[in-house]
């Protein structure tokens, strides 16, 4: 890959670190800004694979590979690239596809966490959806009372249940419910509710139950647990899964913060979908990180 003199002169003036990577993800151009941010000299960088740069080069290489493979632009937060151990700086690095290779841009990591801005957005969103949720819930309750067909009554009841759960989630986002509302939960009843929700959304996906019938009830917040499990099965469905296994098992040897051994229940969601893209594997649970172009990146973060 080559660039014109005018391109190089323009990029050399930028304070941000900029590099061009060829199709093999070798550094074929670096500007002085990148050298200043990382402490590496031009001679050390040019011709080197991105994965060879310590200490987080391998993480960046995986993200660059995703962009090279056709993924849209990717931003990786809080990575380290430094020639001198112990003098690492946190960097935010962006990758964008080029006709030949990948463009890398590095800047000092943002000092203001994006989570605080995200929280404001979520609170605004929660405020806006409260009234529509109440209207949907009321309409579903009317349908449930008037409907004589049993399957339709069950679907109406499902709508009522889900709108109530989402209403509780909006209240939590608004700060009205800061604590967990815990009670005894029948694990398998919760998983059956999850299967019913999935079946209503995606009838083409096979749901396999693999339960341990001897498990006792667990104590927890059913709304939050259902939300976590629902996000997992929806991610699986959106990753082209055709078969999802809901599994429950007893777990031995779990220790609390004081070293005390406690009984526990393990719930697993297994699927045959495409899996997590390598480019986002390290940042999967951060807000706004998604492997889909239309994804919000909020499900796993919540």
Helix/strand/pairing category: alpha+beta
Count up the helices.
Answer: 8
Rg, alpha carbons: 25 Å
Strand content: 15-25%
Provide mean pLDDT, rounded: 82
Q: Trace the largest sheet across and list its strands.
A: 2-1-5-4-3
Give the oligomeric state of the chains in this entry, treating copies of one chain as homo and distinct chains as hetero: single chain
Estimate percent helicity: 25-40%
Order of helices and strands: HEEHHHEEEHHEHEEHEE
Shape: elongated
Number of strands: 10
Distance between the first and last residues' Cα: 42 Å
The major beta sheet can be summarized as: 5 strands, antiparallel
- Contiguous low-pLDDT stretches (5 residues minimum) are 1-5
Structure description:
- With 302 residues, the chain is α+β, with helices and mostly antiparallel strands.
- Residues 1-5 have low confidence and may be disordered.
- Helix 5 (114-146) packs antiparallel against helix 6 and helix 7 packs parallel to helix 8.
- The protein has 8 helices and 10 strands.
- It is elongated, with a radius of gyration of 25 Å.
- 19% of the residues are buried.
Secondary structure layout plus pairing:
Elements: H1 5-12, E1 17-21, E2 27-30, H2 32-38, H3 42-45, H4 57-68, E3 74-80, E4 90-97, E5 102-108, H5 114-146, H6 150-173, E6 183-185, H7 187-201, E7 206-210, E8 218-220, H8 222-238, E9 243-255, E10 261-271
Helix pairs in contact: 5-6, 7-8
């Amino acid at each position: 890959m080559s660039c014109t003199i005018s391109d190089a002169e323009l990029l050399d003036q930028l304070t941000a670190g900029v590099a061009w990577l060829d199709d093999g993800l070798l550094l074929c151009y670096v500007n002085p800004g990148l050298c200043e941010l990382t402490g590496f000299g031009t001679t050390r960088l040019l011709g080197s694979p991105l994965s060879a740069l310590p200490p987080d080069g391998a993480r960046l290489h995986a993200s660059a590979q995703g962009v090279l493979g056709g993924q849209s632009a990717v931003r990786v937060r809080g990575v380290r690239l430094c020639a001198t151990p112990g003098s690492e700086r946190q960097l935010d690095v962006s990758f964008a596809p080029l006709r030949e290779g990948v463009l890398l841009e590095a800047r000092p990591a943002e000092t203001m966490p994006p989570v605080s801005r995200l929280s404001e957005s979520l609170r605004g969103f929660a405020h806006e959806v409260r009234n529509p949720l109440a209207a949907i819930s009321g309409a579903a309750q009317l349908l449930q009372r008037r409907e004589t067909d049993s399957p339709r009554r069950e679907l109406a009841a499902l709508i009522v249940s889900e709108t109530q759960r989402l209403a509780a989630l909006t209240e939590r986002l608004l700060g009205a419910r800061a604590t967990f509302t815990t009670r005894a939960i029948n694990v398998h009843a919760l998983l059956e509710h999850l299967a019913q929700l999935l079946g209503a959304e995606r009838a083409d996906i096979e749901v396999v139950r693999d339960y341990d019938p001897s498990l006792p009830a667990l104590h927890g917040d059913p709304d939050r647990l259902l939300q976590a499990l629902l996000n997992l099965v929806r991610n699986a469905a959106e990753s082209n899964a055709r078969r999802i296994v809901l599994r429950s098992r007893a777990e031995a040897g779990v220790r609390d913060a004081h070293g005390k051994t406690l009984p526990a229940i393990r719930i697993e969601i297994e699927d045959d979908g495409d899996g997590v893209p390598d480019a986002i594997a390290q940042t999967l649970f951060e807000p706004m990180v998604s492997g889909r172009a239309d994804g919000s990146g909020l499900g796993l973060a919540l």
